[in-house]
Amino acid sequence: MLDLAILGLLEDRGLHGYEIRRRVREQLGLLVNVSFGSLYPALGRLEAAGAVTTEETTPTAPPAPTPPTGSLSGELAVLRARRRPAPPRGGRRGRKVYTITDEGRRLFAELLAGEGADDARSFGLRVSLARHLAPQARVALLERRRGVLGQRLGEVRAATGGASLDSYARSVMEHTAEGMEQDIRWIDRLIDAERSQISVGTGAKSPDWSGTRRGGERP
Amino acid sequence: MLDLAILGLLEDRGLHGYEIRRRVREQLGLLVNVSFGSLYPALGRLEAAGAVTTEETTPTAPPAPTPPTGSLSGELAVLRARRRPAPPRGGRRGRKVYTITDEGRRLFAELLAGEGADDARSFGLRVSLARHLAPQARVALLERRRGVLGQRLGEVRAATGGASLDSYARSVMEHTAEGMEQDIRWIDRLIDAERSQISVGTGAKSPDWSGTRRGGERP
DNA sequence: CGCCGCTATATCGGATCGATATACTGACCA
DNA sequence: TGGTCAGTATATCGATCCGATATAGCGGCG
After folding, report:
1. Rounded CA gap, A123 and A31, in Å?
2. Whole-prediction pTM value?
3. Which of the residues A130, A165, A169, B218 could staple to B168 if both were Cys, CB 3.0 to 4.6 A apart?
């Protein structure tokens, strides 16, 4: 699931690990709580699978072939004396910039449209990345989640009515059910918006969804 | 976190693994999605820590006279566990009945009041088990969560306003924020109910919270 | 001058999950 | 009579994820 978030961010531009973590937290909305203990293994996985490539950048160094066996302290002294050029903040140290490959794009599309993991976090993540999906795939994603939520809501309602629960457990269950109902209403609104959008755009036949964004972008 | 759920259920009666799983799912409200791959290691952990003891029951016990296994308390635990009104289903095979110990009760109280893990699932679980908490500990739990949620809500609001998000990611964020607000309102209601309860019961000084349940029980 | 805080990569152990294996039983059906 | 399915029950496997921690450079603050 983390792989999907990473690939979704790298679809836009190449990034290094620390930046990926920040963007996942602030763009994909705290739904995925990335820690380095999961991020770096995930990046290693994706690299081993050929989905991303890495480019190691030496800190503010010219692209000249710096020998790895050379005098390290000398190198550092040079770097320290050279001062920072353009970047406004942050101690620039060696970074690994990750770039998505064609195989990565294929894997991303597969993970985004695939059926794996229908929990709340995965679903929110998929919706956040829905602009990369075809309109009918968007509707399919939303309706699949709607069905699951409806089922779960029935189960929770049955458990709330049937079991002998004290007031605290009952309150938790009722609150859970209310949250599910709110989720369902939200998904229904999304489905409606999607359907009206499809009915409008039936004339177009572009296979690229990057030009089909709806309103809400910042100019 | 699963340890807390298990101990909370065993506080009431001894249970075997399969039954624990079912009760966690239907009593603690699908908040904790227990799988056997996490349940049995957790039970083994608790047994190794001395928090629970196990009593193995011989398989296919003949109906009328239960074969003598020697341990009387174990037999009672089995009887309690299978005290179901009309269980016409189910192949009785060898079970391991888990019973909580004094050390387990101590650990349970520690986990329930402790500060570890303030995510939504842990919090819901703690509230579900709040009848085992002292009133002031209940208020402390609720207010701690309220503070965390308020903080997170501010972060989400800031991220929603600041970043350049497309309509899908924006919708997810706004829905997340609405869910947080609903959570906060729910917690505020719980805090109010708790405070009024405390102000009523200031005269009593019973150290046992099992008699201080509020309304909502099934008669 | 030391210390704090930020950027940045990486690893460790433990917890959890989904899938799966094993085994026994009762029910349904032909 | 046999076959298959579904339910009960315990257990393990690999993969994944998380929190804590280590390492390291750097700027600013007092």
Report:
1. 10
2. 0.79
3. A130
